[in-house]
Backbone:
């Protein structure tokens, strides 16, 4: 069992093109010292390698590739299509985007191409053809990095035309569109495909509720969700176009593009099917919980259910967040191992040498502005490099086996956050994270899975806010439970179908029979309002955001509301269905409440943590053919004892045996290797 690469790629974004040649040799010397073995190059060089419409110039890129080849690097070669050259926007303004407010953009920024511009596509194709022809056979180019952090939207006329074509393919008839989006509402019936308009603020999109609000309103969520699907597909077509060109010159190439964790704009499960390996950029801020980072890694691993690449992280500090704190001594190392603990086979930084100008000059790098290796950050990078070199290829390709699946679904992400009502505080990722956190705290391995996963591989499925139940989901979930699985689902589930129209006959629609309750009404609580939920054993927890008012239709009551006119009615229920069990959580409980229900469900499902002993350390397990690696990490503000069940085994980082009673300080790590 081995991964996509022969060694752990250790390096990152490298832009020697921004520096005079004298610096390059110095770079190589310093990187060698840090055991850097990989560089991601040519990410934003379109304007340099194609200075005009007719002219290409690869001489500098050739030199960079030659230098890195001499140093035996694994080169991650980007295609440079993520930032338009100025000449192109000047001559063909259509290559730029039109934004949500309807403004057509000038030259500037990056990630700025209209995905449906034939001119952009033509020049991107021409560029990638030349790159692949030139470097496709180079054995040092071990990975292709298409574009960069695909995302954003465009609402231009080309996109509108393309949307109509996409719609025609999906719905076939205009009647079907009227029905799908329920256009009789507000008299929006359309009679011709050309009457379909993109949902930005000039159309059926609405002003953002408040500055900075993540939620954007829409008069027709069905339209807006279809636009999200279309936009994700349009951009994916751009990726596939480049990928196929590279493939034609380099049939065995490993081709990827760097994703962004829980980024909302693209349906990454759909994208991952087109990628050889998932890679992603991890930029938590100073207050991001470690459980959230872990969830993001699990999601990125879950996309293909395979080890992934960490394409970017900062060695020290960011520049684009509000408060760009330093990573504390040891934190970068611990964070890198956490990444590997959840399935990464590479550790790459943005970037290797800190920029002299532009908006990223305060972004951390392996070599800082001082220009030498005499820095704390460099020493930490070097320490990690030496450790990874010693680890060799042993962890590569090893797998995180899990018994719990948490459903993550981009259609649900979009649809839930487009709903007008019942409560604006209902945010998809936060919702998923609060359920994930229980398993994280218990060291129970989790896979983040798509709605059409093979549920039978898991003992327990958690599907929070499963608002949109798409075709096949009801049956798949019912089969899972009938065959003995344990399902936990919540408020705001089973409400709408594929096009955001409500399932009539009572909530939670298609899940009603399986969960054995009928939700008659949904109350919304403002931030200052709470209810209390009382469990059978008398314990009480707080609940907020929404409260389902429900009737038992076969289920038993696990906990009840304490206040309001629905005091004494069920807040949490349990139902036996076939040989399995479903839990329905009717309100957004605090951490203790969620933990209580998930603990019952985990006990029913006989789900086990990766090690039997309880600990406040984070512990994950990656299995290789010859044994297991337990990643043991301390992210708490105190020294903690290593679980005794791991004592007697070797630490893969030091080769030393882990002793009983040994402790880990904050940010300390052991990778305990247990042979079969
Ligand atoms: C993103 C981009 C990089 C760089 C970093 C800075 O991840 O891919 O080019 O801008 O952010 O954090
Ligand atoms: Zn466009």
Residues:
């Amino acid at each position: 069992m081995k991964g996509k690469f022969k060694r752990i790629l250790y390096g990152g974004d490298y832009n020697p093109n921004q520096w005079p040649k004298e610096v390059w040799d110095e770079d190589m010397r310093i990187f060698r010292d840090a055991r850097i073995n990989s560089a991601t190059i040519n990410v934003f060089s379109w304007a340099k390698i194609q200075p005009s419409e007719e002219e290409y110039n690869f001489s500098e890129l050739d030199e960079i590739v030659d230098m890195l080849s001499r140093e035996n690097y694994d080169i991650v070669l980007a295609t440079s299509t993520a930032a338009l050259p100025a000449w192109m926007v000047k001559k063909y303004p259509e290559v730029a985007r039109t934004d949500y407010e309807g403004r057509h953009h000038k030259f500037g920024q990056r990630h700025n191409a209209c995905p449906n511009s034939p001119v952009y596509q033509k020049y991107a194709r021409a560029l990638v053809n030349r790159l692949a022809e030139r470097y496709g056979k180079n054995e040092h180019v071990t990975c292709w990095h298409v574009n960069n952090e695909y995302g954003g939207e465009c609402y231009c006329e080309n996109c509108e035309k393309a949307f109509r074509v996409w719609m025609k393919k999906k719905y076939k008839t205009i009647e079907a569109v009227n029905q799908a989006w329920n256009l009789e509402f507000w008299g929006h019936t359309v009679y011709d495909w050309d009457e379909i308009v993109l949902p930005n603020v000039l159309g059926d999109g609405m002003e953002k509720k408040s500055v900075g609000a993540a939620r954007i309103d829409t008069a027709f969520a069905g339209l807006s969700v279809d636009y999200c699907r279309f936009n994700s597909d349009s951009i994916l077509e751009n990726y596939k176009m480049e990928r196929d060109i590279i493939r034609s010159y380099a049939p065995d190439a490993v081709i990827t593009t760097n994703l962004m964790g829980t980024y909302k704009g693209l349906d990454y499960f759909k994208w991952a099917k087109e990628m050889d390996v998932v890679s992603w950029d991890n930029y938590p801020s100073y207050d991001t919980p470690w459980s959230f980072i872990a969830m993001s890694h699990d999601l990125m691993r879950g996309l293909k259910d395979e080890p992934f690449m960490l394409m970017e992280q900062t060695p020290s500090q960011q520049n684009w967040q509000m408060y760009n704190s330093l990573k504390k001594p040891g934190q970068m190392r611990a964070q890198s191992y956490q990444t590997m603990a959840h399935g990464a086979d590479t550790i790459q930084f943005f970037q290797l040498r800190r920029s002299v100008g532009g908006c990223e000059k305060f972004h951390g790098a392996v070599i800082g502005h001082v220009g030498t290796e005499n820095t704390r950050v460099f020493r930490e990078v070097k320490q990690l490099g030496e450790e990874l070199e010693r680890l060799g290829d042993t962890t590569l390709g090893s797998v995180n086996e899990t018994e719990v699946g948490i459903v993550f679904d981009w259609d649900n992400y979009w649809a839930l956050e487009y709903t007008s009502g019942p409560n604006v505080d209902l945010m998809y990722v936060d919702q998923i994270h609060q359920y994930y956190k229980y398993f994280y705290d218990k060291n129970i391995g989790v896979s983040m899975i798509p709605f059409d996963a093979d549920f039978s591989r898991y003992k327990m499925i958690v599907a929070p806010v499963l608002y949109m139940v798409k075709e096949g989901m009801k049956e798949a979930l019912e089969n899972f439970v009938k065959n003995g699985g344990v399902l936990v689902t919540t408020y705001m589930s089973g409400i709408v179908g594929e096009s955001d129209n409500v399932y009539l006959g009572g909530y939670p629609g298609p899940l009603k029979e399986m969960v054995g309750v009928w939700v008659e009404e949904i109350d919304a609580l403002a931030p200052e309002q709470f209810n209390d939920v009382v469990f059978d054993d008398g314990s009480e927890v707080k609940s907020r955001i929404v409260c389902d008012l429900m009737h038992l239709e076969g289920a038993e009551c696990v906990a009840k509301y304490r206040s309001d006119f629905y005091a004494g009615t069920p807040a949490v229920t349990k139902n036996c269905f076939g040989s399995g069990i479903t839990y329905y959580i009717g309100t957004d409980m605090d951490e203790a409440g969620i933990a209580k229900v998930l603990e019952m469900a985990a006990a029913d499902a006989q789900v086990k943590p990766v090690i039997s002993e309880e600990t406040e350390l984070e512990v994950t397990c990656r299995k290789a053919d010859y044994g297991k690696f337990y990643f043991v990490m301390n992210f708490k503000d105190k020294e903690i004892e290593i679980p005794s069940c791991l004592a007697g085994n070797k630490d893969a980082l030091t080769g030393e045996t882990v002793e009983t009673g040994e402790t880990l300080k904050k940010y300390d790590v052991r990778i305990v290797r247990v042979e079969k």
Summary: DSSP finds 17 helices and 28 strands in the chain. The mean pLDDT is 97.
